[in-house]
Amino acid sequence: MVLARLCVECASRVVFLVDRDGQTIAFHGDIGDMDTMSFSSLAAGNVAATSSMAKLIGEDVFPAVVHEGERESIFISVIGRSLLVVVFDERSTLGLVKLRTKKASFEVAAILDEAVKESTTFNASSSSVFAEITDEDIDSLFG
Amino acid sequence: MTFINYASREINCKIVYYGPGLCGKTTNLQYIYDSTAPQAKGKLISLATETDRTLFFDFMPLELGTVRGFKTRFHLYTVPGQVYYDASRKLILKGVDGVVFVADSQDERMDANIESLYNLEENLQTQGYDLMQLPYVLQLNKRDLPNVTPTDELAQELLRKDEPVFEAVATDGTGVFDTLKAVAKQVLTELRKS
């Protein structure tokens, strides 16, 4: 819901929520034929690299990363262990995207905090699903 | 850390191919990419220099099928092997679920193998991992070359625990899928234990 609203409010093409290890958590918008897995992996790699560059010049972290293209641009906001990535074109502006993303990032942070709390109880009840995986299940993946 | 999406019923695991420069990490991924059906793989992304040396990482997602109703996907990464790209290597190890160490079997690369393996253990530690606890496979690559160290000598130097060891010739695919299967099985077995 938050991503969908942010997508509309920013007049953006697509909004991604990505784990800092490069996994896509969620997205909303027009992905066309975009390879979302590669996109998330590269976004995380990008933030990891710029965060390390920040440390080299005495900054703790760059909270946002911007890439401006001729038509399409990318704005990445770092929210703890996650990244909010907005892809937008000339129908929007960087100022608008920054403003709306800042607002949405507080909501996303609250949702993620809640999810972490819930996952502690959820993991305990759901781990049995994976405990039931047999050697045959694993072997069957490899034909 | 294995990323489980309960909403879309997906398991995503990260496997990193590690090893000294020019040992064949990218060649492993390239062979897997070339031999896999289009519907089971994503794009092979290579962040490489103009001379095709890995600069940051290579990446390809590989879908293996379904386990207990969960789509199982492996994200395969390589690291740059050259000693001076250590900062990049550390970053790629974040969130790793399993590691393949690709050793170059040539006599003159023994020192480079040892140095790279030491570097792996060190970089894992800085990310809070212990190689002894992590799904891990040792691949002895380039076995087709004339000047190779005998496998028992290589194993004696490079074995860290009771990890599976595979002889390989990544250029023609020998041992490539055996290596991948072995590490993937260990990752899924860890998931079962957790």
Assembly type: heterodimer
Query: What's the helical proportion of residues of chain B?
Result: 25-40%
CATH architecture of chain B: 3-Layer(aba) Sandwich
Order of helices and strands of chain B: EEHEEEHEHEHEH
Beta-strand level of the residues of chain A, as a percent range? 15-25%
Structural class estimated from helices and strands of chain B: alpha/beta
The CATH topology of chain B is Rossmann fold
Mind telling me the C-alpha Rg of chain B?
A: 16 Å
Unreliable residue stretches of chain A: none
The number of helical segments of chain B is: 5
Largest interface: A-B, 28 and 36 residues
Order of helices and strands of chain A: HEEHEEEHH
Overall number of structural domains of chain A: 1
Radius of gyration of chain A: 18 Å
Q: What structural class do helix, strand and pairing data of chain A support? A: alpha+beta
Task: Give a written overview of the molecule.
With 143 residues, chain A is an alpha+beta fold. Chain A has a single domain (2-140), classed as Dynein light chain 2a, cytoplasmic (Beta-Lactamase, 2-Layer Sandwich). Chain A contains 4 helices and 5 strands; from the N terminus they run H-E-E-H-E-E-E-H-H. Chain A has helices at 2-9, 36-56, 94-131, 135-140, and strands at 14-19, 24-29, 64-68, 73-79, 82-88. Chain A has a 5-stranded antiparallel beta sheet with strand order 2-1-5-4-3, sandwiched between helices. In chain A, strand 4 (73-79) and strand 5 form a beta hairpin. In chain A, 29% of the residues are buried. Chain B is of the alpha/beta class. Chain B has one domain (3-193): P-loop containing nucleotide triphosphate hydrolases (Rossmann fold, 3-Layer(aba) Sandwich), CATH 3.40.50.300. In chain B, 31% of the residues lie in helices and 28% in strands. Chain B has helices at 25-35, 86-92, 110-126, 151-158, 176-193; strands at 3-5, 10-18, 45-48, 54-67, 70-78, 98-104, 136-141, 165-167. In chain B, strands 1, 2, 3, 4, 5, 6, 7 and 8 form an 8-stranded mixed beta sheet that branches. The longest helix of chain B has 18 residues, at 176-193.
